[in-house]
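I have been asked to look over a protein record a colleague put together. Alongside the sequence sits a line of tokens, each denoting a local backbone shape. Please read both lines and tell me whether the tokens look consistent with the sequence. I do not need a full report, just your reasoning and any doubts. I have pasted the whole thing underneath without changing anything.
>
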Amino acid sequence: MVICLIGTGLIGCSMALTLKQASFASRVIGVDKNPMHLDKAISLGYVDEGASLEDGIKQSDAIVIATPVNIIASLLPNVLDLIEDQWVIDVGSTKSILIDKVSHHEKRGHYVASHPMAGTEFSGPEAAIPNLFQNKVVVLCNTMDNPKQILEQAVRLFEQLEMEILYQDAVEHDIHAAYVSHISHISSFALALTVLEKEKNEDEIFKLASGGFDSTVRLAKSSPAMWVPIFEQNRDNVLDVLDEHINTLARFRSLLIKKDFDAFYKAIEKANDIKRILQAK
């Protein structure tokens, strides 16, 4: 199978690497407006050659759009305009707006809306890693709009990545993504800004930062070019969970002011229940 990869960053190149290793992809054609990213992806062997959008699609059996979600939203209708019998997936972290963009397109059924829930805080083709998707979840949305044959091919691709496949409505997906992914990134960005504002001595941050601090602010290293469009497209759901997060922080603050450490203990004990949920996964 020849795959046209639009966007040669961490997710796209990690996907290309794994699909080539599994012999699912015989050739990967890269499309990227950043020539340095494309050249690097080719030199690292993730992509076999570069092409224009039109030529890449024309030569391919399947198209993977692995760009920030704002670019996916603008590209997706054009990609569907250019395909014949190929099928298209994206890797965006939001789904409702993307599906709405092409809901009335004559080739809507050729687009399988997907969200592989995997990644790191790093970006670019040099950040690609093997087995990034192994044992992770991919959410496929509104698949009732996909012909069986096209959906089966997309499922085969994600099975080659060794992913667990979950089917959801796009609206529900965006709500849950805000709860478990998007709020985590905002919290990490906010904590990093707080520490940078209060601790002006960078050496002290470096010397005193333990594993706990590093893991909590790890996501703050993520690219704004990727995350700002996600917050924009999923704004209402992110605001809803952010309001609850702010209220929870305010309750912790109030307990500290009141020196009510018994209630503080109970709050942390309640929070510990997240271990039961995550261990059951």
